[in-house]
Design a protein that fits this description.
The structure holds two protein chains of two kinds. By secondary structure, chain A is of the alpha/beta class. Chain A has 15 helices and five strands. In chain A, α2 runs antiparallel to α7 and α11 runs antiparallel to α13. Chain B is built from ten helices and ten strands. Helices cover 37% and strands 25% of the residues of chain B. The radius of gyration of chain B is 19 Å and the shape is globular. Classes of the chains: A alpha/beta, B alpha/beta. Bound molecules: adenosine-5'-diphosphate and magnesium ion. The site of magnesium ion (MG) has 3 residues of chain B, from α2. Adenosine-5'-diphosphate sits at the interface of chains B and A.
């Protein structure tokens, strides 16, 4: 009951101030603008591709892919091996590597019968090799990979990139995106949370609540929960900004982008953002509780922000971080987002990150409650 | 409603009983400079004992820095005594802080209301903070807002209220839960004469409603005007304690105070 009244009051204060609402929605718009502009500048907008794809083996999936390509307004020529230009898969691969062809699809023998359950008992396999140095090849891989990934019936699917060096611009984008999300989410959280406790201390309105018989944990939760909800509006806006900019980023249509990251990928991205928000909110709330004035709080929060930036930049530029990254708040979310975006998503990695973020949040809420009962913090001069 | 009808039996006529309260603060470098001392610790309240009676106004009188605010904060459970204990309506401030908070209304000029809300909203909010039912709350709001002339301003945002009206609203909100004891730190400090009168009238009204009041002040006239009992507190210790007549013994309160002060400090003021 008391918690409910505390939460209601926080919401009432927020929704009575339209300026705050705008600061929440702005981040998504910014992400969208930045990425659309950058994407267009780097990749020159949407291309009209004519793919040349080698196919070894046979499958009806090829027709599905062809349909999707046509839907995107592109064309594809599927060349079955052995062909005049390439006799073997090795030769086809060389052409993909040198940029003469866009991709190589390899299906095991009797692929369609096997996945329909009428063939032999060995596991059917499908392989996709592309070259991320070529925009066209990457676009085809995103499209075909998405379709194969979601083709449903059990078969082993492997994607390989034949590029000798990773396309710098593209990897920068994929690496930087989670970093940007964290920064935008952080500023969304900061704009509502920074003054939450310190401001009330400064104005003398917190003590008025502290002299009532409301529990300190209720008072702490009464701050963190509503502020998280409000910050989530900002996070959702950032999330939308990301989804809408992905197509430009990958140089493909929205459908193809959605297929590329996959429905599960989007769910994971969303969960990661949702779990990071209360974590950041409660971290800033701790800082706000420790500070005597809003000015002091904003000083400490910039330190916190720098720490976040270091953590996420670390993830963006240091590749091959070990599993231990999952245990570190924020870093875990950045690493998981990256792996979702590059298609190497580990569901467990994401879920563990989400779970741990919630645990850290709970701990921080208890810390706030403890601080609220500390006379040094509340009445120290 | 709540406490006025509870039987006297468990704590008798003594609504507040402080027993050997002691509170020490660790001083930071900056505080040491401000207090002009090299000692790392400051004894703010030093073995304070007194009792306040039901239906009376008890005044803690002392100079700045005597330990009045610290004492009242211990009584209202905002800070914990280092040693000793105090009982408010029979509840220990150390062991049952939650119960004490429901039994008291604590007021000081440090406690502010949020500008953004209306008196009516804040009354309901603080009612909820004390766990009051909606229907009981509505009845109490009607009664108190009527009694203190707030009804016409019930839906005006706090930031648009006059100083006097704002003061009334703060006072009324702090007794939303009908506490048996009202604790008031420096009731008229920093107020202009008109607002100060709102406060003293309010205290007299509370007494008429049968509340017990404990206040602190450094103003002699306020004690003489309002208080039944007075405790003179100097350097965290109780220097004199009793009814106004007992403590003054025919002299004015001011003369009595300085006589005691000279006796303790050994200086002429
Ligand atoms: N939080 C604190 N930290 C350090 N010293 C304090 C603190 N609160 C009060 N004091 C010191 O304790 C003494 C008593 O203060 P206080 O109770 O506010 O006196 P009064 O209310 O009678 O003016 C003063 O010397 C004051 O400086
Ligand atoms: Mg004081």
């Amino acid at each position: 009951m008391k918690l409910l009244a505390l939460m209601k009051k926080e919401f009432a204060r927020f929704f009575g101030d339209p300026r705050l609402l705008i600061t929440m929605i702005l981040p998504g718009v910014l992400i969208y603008l930045i990425y659309s502009l950058m994407g267009n500048a780097i990749f020159g907008g949407e291309e009209r591709y004519a793919f040349r794809v080698y196919v070894s083996g046979e499958s009806a999936v090829v027709d599905v892919i062809d349909g999707a390509v046509t839907q995107n307004g592109w064309t594809a020529e599927f060349v079955y091996l052995p062909a005049e230009g390439a006799q073997t898969a090795e030769e086809a691969l060389e052409q993909v590597q040198s940029g003469q062809a866009d991709a190589l699809l390899v299906f095991s023998e009797g692929f369609d019968e096997a996945i329909a359950g009428t063939g032999g008992d060995s596991v059917p396999t499908a392989g996709l090799t592309y070259n991320s140095e070529s925009d066209g090849s990457a676009a085809f891989a995103a499209l075909a990979g998405g379709i194969l990934e979601n083709y449903g019936r059990p078969f082993a699917f492997t994607v390989s990139d034949s590029a000798e060096s990773v396309d710098f611009a593209r990897s920068m984008m994929a690496g930087l995106l989670p970093f940007l999300i964290v920064i935008f989410v952080f500023s969304a959280c900061m704009s509502v949370t920074l003054e939450s406790v310190a401001g009330e201390k400064e104005r003398g309105t917190l003590a008025t609540v502290l002299v009532t018989s409301a529990r300190r944990t209720d008072i702490a939760l009464g701050k963190v929960l509503p502020l998280s909800c409000v910050s989530l509006i900002g996070a959702a806006s950032s999330f939308l900004g990301v989804i809408l900019s992905l197509p430009t980023l990958m140089g493909i249509s929205v459908d193809a982008a959605v297929a590329g990251v996959g429905a599960l990928g989007y769910v994971m991205l969303f969960l990661l953002i949702v779990s990071v928000v209360p974590l950041i909110v409660s971290a800033i709330a701790v800082v706000s509780t420790l500070s005597h004035t809003v000015k002091e709080a904003s000083g400490y929060t910039s330190v916190l922000m720098i720490l976040m930036m270091v953590l996420s930049i670390l993830a963006a530029f240091v590749s091959g971080i070990g599993d231990w990254a999952v245990a570190i708040p924020v870093l875990n979310a950045v690493v998981s987002m990256q792996s979702v975006l590059t298609g190497a998503m580990g569901v467990w990695q994401c879920l563990v990150s989400v779970g741990l973020n919630l645990v850290y949040t709970a701990l921080l809420v208890f810390a706030i409650a403890r601080l609220l009962s500390s006379e040094r913090v509340m009445f120290g001069k | 409603m709540l406490s006025t009808e509870t039987p006297f039996s468990d704590f008798g006529e003594e609504v507040v009983r402080a027993e050997n309260l002691r509170k020490t603060f660790t001083l930071s470098r900056k505080q040491q400079r401000l207090e002009r001392t090299d000692l790392p610790r400051k004894v703010a309240v030093d073995g304070l004992s007194f009792t306040a009676q039901r239906g009376e106004i008890y005044g803690l009188l002392g100079p700045n820095g005597a330990g009045k605010t610290t004492t009242l904060r211990m009584l209202s459970t905002l800070i914990r005594p280092d040693s000793g204990d105090a009982f408010v309506c029979g509840h220990s401030v150390v062991r049952e802080p939650q119960k004490v908070r429901d039994a008291i209304g604590f007021m000081t000029s440090d406690l502010k209301l949020e500008n953004f809300f209306t008196p009516s909203y804040l009354f309901d909010f603080f009612g909820a903070m004390h766990g009051l039912e909606k229907s009981a709350l509505a009845a109490r709001k009607r009664e108190l807002f009527g009694r203190f002339g707030i009804d016409r301003f019930a839906e005006v945002k706090v930031r648009d209220l006059s100083t006097g009206m704002l003061q009334k609203v703060s006072l009324v909100v702090s007794i939303v839960h009908d506490p048996a004891v009202v604790i008031f730190d420096e009731p008229t400090n920093g107020l202009d004469v008109l607002t100060a009168k709102v406060v003293t009238d309010f205290l007299a009204e509370l007494k008429a409603m049968g509340k017990s009041i404990l206040l602190s002040t450094h103003i002699f006239s306020l004690v003489e005007k309002l208080c039944d009992r007075v405790g003179i507190i100097i350097d965290g210790k109780m220097a004199a304690d009793g009814t106004l007549a007992e403590v003054c013994a025919g002299d004015s309160l001011e003369d009595t105070f300085f006589a005691i002060y000279r006796g303790i400090k050994g200086v002429t003021v």
